[in-house]
Amino acid sequence: MDWVMCLIPFAVCFAGVLAAAKVTKKKKAMLAVVGVVLFLVATIGSLAVYRYRNILAPIRKSELLTVAELRLDPLRGENEQNETQIGGQTALYQEIQRYLEQAVYLPCINQDAAAAGTQDIVLQYQDDAGVNLWLAIYQDTGTCWVNGKKAVFFPWESQGRDAYQTLAGILESGGTPLTVTAVDVENDLVLAVQAGEKPYALHKASEKLRARDGGRLPLAELSVGDRLTVLSDGAVLLSDPYQFEHIYKIYREE
What is this structure's pTM? Predict the structure, then answer.
């Protein structure tokens, strides 16, 4: 936002000098055009620098993405609904990166937090040195928060207010279909098989288990033979049975 505060006084000073200059109207018009062009170039250049420093560079140097879904409860404050990690070498990581990198980010002069939505997706890019970027995308607002500062989000592929839905769609694309073979409520474990009898173990399944309407599903309601769709970043540990390295959600299919 600092670049905005620098460009506005510059524009005001330029307009004042132009108005006081003792030159013909034709020359004033030419100087005004030059001033507008310079202002636009400076603005676009500043936006490009902001986008590179705050979005592109942090994403490209990161190795891990943590995704959290948050919902703002008016009575209890902000509650975490779901959190997962996505490996930097996975196709899911690269698809989210592609979507974020093609957007334009316009820092807001007004940093009023009241514009935040009631539900959002928080993306935290990090490496061994720590967090490089904290980005929150709010539902139906067209705004985002970049490292705690509000900005307007302009993706090329959709409208800014659709960014939450677009990211949610990317996270929920694909999935691995499984059939439940055993449920261990005491140890929070589900055993399941993929077509071809490829066995999987889903540890701490209760944290990720959902009904298709998005609501949480108690592990005790899961039965042998139920069909599941596991949303993950695609990374699988070649253990026996197999395990997903990072699980986003587990849906029980109706």
Answer: 0.76
